[in-house]
Amino acid sequence: HHSTNSTNIIRCGLESLYHEAEAELKKCATEEERIFLRSAMRGLLAVKLIAEKFAKAADRKLETASDPEEVRFLNMISRAGRRVPWKPAETFYEGLAMFPFLYEVIASLEGNGLSAFGRLDFVLGPLYERDLAAGRITRDEAVDLLSRALCFTDCRYDKYGSWKDAYNTQENGTAMSLGGYGEEGKVVCNEVTMMILEVHRKWNLLFPKLQLRICRETPKAFFDAANANLLEGRNVLSFLNDDCIIAAQVRAGKRREDEIGRAHV
């Protein structure tokens, strides 16, 4: 499963990567290196332009929109498209919107099928808490946004039809990691974790496939929320043991700090 480096992009924005490439351009020893960096910079600018096109499309729809909910969402798209992913996400909505956007736009530009959203709870948890404290969002609003985002992958496939007749036998491969170790070795289990498990179960989703990272310090609430699916006969979850996987990756020569933040899928 391929994924974007969504954590760094959401936290730092593509602009920071552009300036890094710009600085490295001055140090290049060969023309091949310069061509690579210039191509990368043009690609980053292309992503910025695509996001801005979404904002402009929302503006055009706003000229005739009258439904309050439609107007609300169009305004959100208009504002977000002018900021992210070029700038770091400042709100829960901006961070959430970046996951499917990066998933689609990078796969389209690079010609490489991506199949993992990354770690939504790890990245979005702090943004949600910040918005909640500032009165910018309620839990119900966050659940509604997560429902719409997760249905983005599930609704494209007819789960009630025969898998033999479906494209790629109904297997779109989209995965998402929840829980596991986070920064400074702290276990990730926040309100966003619980909301995603709630939404996935409520709407009886198959995709995105939830890869649940567990370890010896995973709280009981995490297992209870996950096991509620199994008690209802929904066998759509995978459990991955962080203690075993991270140790194995370190023995293979990888850095522990890199593996803690990685989206195991």
Q: How does the SSE layout of this entry go?
A:
Layout: H1 6-12, H2 14-25, H3 31-62, H4 68-81, H5 92-110, E1 116-118, H6 120-134, H7 139-154, E2 175-179, H8 191-202, E3 209-214, H9 220-231, E4 237-241, H10 242-251, H11 256-261
Helix pairs in contact: 2-3, 3-4, 3-5, 5-6, 5-7, 6-8, 7-8, 8-9
What does this structure look like?
The protein has 265 residues and is α/β, with parallel strands linked by helices. The protein contains 11 helices and 4 strands. The protein has helices spanning 6-12, 14-25, 31-62, 68-81, 92-110, 120-134, 139-154, 191-202, 220-231, 242-251, 256-261; strands spanning 116-118, 175-179, 209-214, 237-241. A 4-stranded parallel sheet has the order 1-2-3-4. Helix 2 packs antiparallel against helix 3 (31-62) and helix 6 crosses helix 8. The mean pLDDT is 88.
Keywords summarizing the entry:
alpha/beta; 58% helix; globular; 11 helices; 265 residues
| Order of strands, widest sheet | 1-2-3-4
* Most strands sheet: 4 strands, parallel
Instruction: Determine the structural class based on helices, strands and strand pairing.
Output: alpha/beta
Mean pLDDT: 88
The span between the termini is 6 Å
Judging from the principal axes of the Cα atoms, what is the shape? Answer: globular
Give the radius of gyration. 20 Å
From N to C, what is the helix and strand string?
Answer: HHHHHEHHEHEHEHH
Q: Count the E strands.
A: 4
**Count of helix runs:** 11
What share of residues is helical?
Answer: 55-70%
Low-confidence stretches: none
As a percent range, the share of strand residues is: 5-15%
